[in-house]
What we know:
The structure is a single chain. This protein is α/β, with parallel strands linked by helices. The chain is built from 15 helices and 19 strands. A 15-stranded mixed beta sheet has the order 1-2-3-5-7-8-9-11-13-14-15-16-17-18-19. Strands 4-6 form a two-stranded parallel sheet. Helix 5 runs parallel beside helix 6. The longest helix has 24 residues, at 3-26.
Amino acid sequence: MSNASLELQDQSTQQPTLTENLSTNSSLIQCLSSEVISEIFVHCLEKGTISNSVTDCPLLLCCVCSSWRTIALHTPRLWTTLDFQPCRTSCTATEFIQHVHSWIKRSGDLPLKLKLDFGYRFEGPDWHDFADAILAAYLQYTSRWRSIEISLDDTHTNTVERMLSNPIHAPRLRSFTLKADDVEDDNFHTPEFSFPALTKFGWAPLTHSLAEINHISWHQLTHVDIGVQISFSPAIEIIQRCPKLVSYSVDLKGIGDEDPLDLNPSPKIVHHCLHSLRLSFTYLCEHFFDCLVLPALHTLKIINDSDDESNEYLYHQTELLTLLMRSGCKLEVLELHYSEINPNMLLQHRSCQTLRWLSFKSHRQSALDDVVLRRMTRKAGKNKEKAGKNEKQQSEVMVCCPVLAHLDLEFYVPVSTPGLLGRMILSRCASKGGGVTLNTVNICTMYLPPLDQELLEEVDRKVCNIRVESLHGIFDNCCEDDDFDEH
């Protein structure tokens, strides 16, 4: 008998066994207890899903079969998060609120994470009724609030003021965020809060004085996000009021009538806990960095939100460098977006030798010059084969930003010598076994020299995901390969 015949006979013999195994495997789920399935369901939840969408969990789990529906409806942890979008429903406001209460009822007495986004205008004559009704429903559960986030625009200001006109007591609340777009802060009433467990606070609008929100226990806050422009003094005052502050995001505006002589306190404000600082501004006060000493800082993001990229901002890079020197911090994330703060001087400082993430964007100046690109380029390993362990470590220290893993550059045209940028990236993506390598590179520019493009095409896409874009489109010769898809 031929080998082919023997193989066919063997497969024919195994077929009943394979069919039996498939049948057994398909019924394994039925052997699991409802408690185990319930735990699996909880791990199916994802962040950012829409609660009133049947394509997202937990509603999706209820559509599979009757047994899954029963288990899902009796798993309280599946129903503790609500992120409703009224624009996705054909219900009336009254019907929608019934769904809200039914949802919360399934969560038992567990703490609630609530989110409501009215930062858009959805169609329908009763959209104000939706806003009133949903906020009124949420306010019935303040004793169970753990996290609440409300976003709105100027058309809903009266609704929020009406619903928050009475004092709010939420003993279990740890995170509170209220964001209002295009709302005049002087016309927005600040409600009275009683949040004894609060650690994360996001607020916009914010009055120029913190006196109106003195119900907040500033001393225990760890995360603060002020999303609408405030002046220099309250921005600094928040840092002073929050000794446990770990993450601070603030939108600065011009100093106005404040006396610059009073904006540079002495002694400096030393904050030992602040890890992450994000500044967005239309006018960056020159004394902001001079006020601070931040030894624990590892994430720094500076974003210019104005349409003007003025050279007047250039002197801030000296201030910023002085802050790094004074603080002795070790940065891991540095983002400079349209601030006209050039990274070339900063990257060579010892505080930046721990950088893992670098993002620089400017429509005017070039990102990296020849000196920095050469210092960031890993040298060929011809001498490393003969070097001892100590010499290898010393050679590694000589490389600027040796542990950089993510590089994001946006600039008009490069001023560096053609090929230096591509050679630097290629040297950091030689192989996975060559130490810390770049794994993500995004470049957006009006012009990328052909030599740099050729060098980038030599990069192993299994090691580094590279995306090259033009300010007016994607370079065809760099993005034909799927490897250039966004990470």
